[in-house]
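Input protein
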Amino acid sequence: MHVEVPWQQLDSSALRGLIEEFVTRDGTDYGAVETCLDTKVNQVIGQLKAGQAVVTFDTEVESATIVVKER
């Protein structure tokens, strides 16, 4: 079961680690131009603030991830 977790409730270091794992995951595409890690992290923070992405927690495997909402 996946539960949405308000990203604002996460500790800042936990949120940063979760975002870094998300942006460095295989298959994440940021286009033809390579983008530095800090820029990618800031982009995801913007998506979270705008409601375009959410943090979810899988209760079965006890793992959190970020999911980008369908447009």
The chain is about 40% helix and 25% strand.
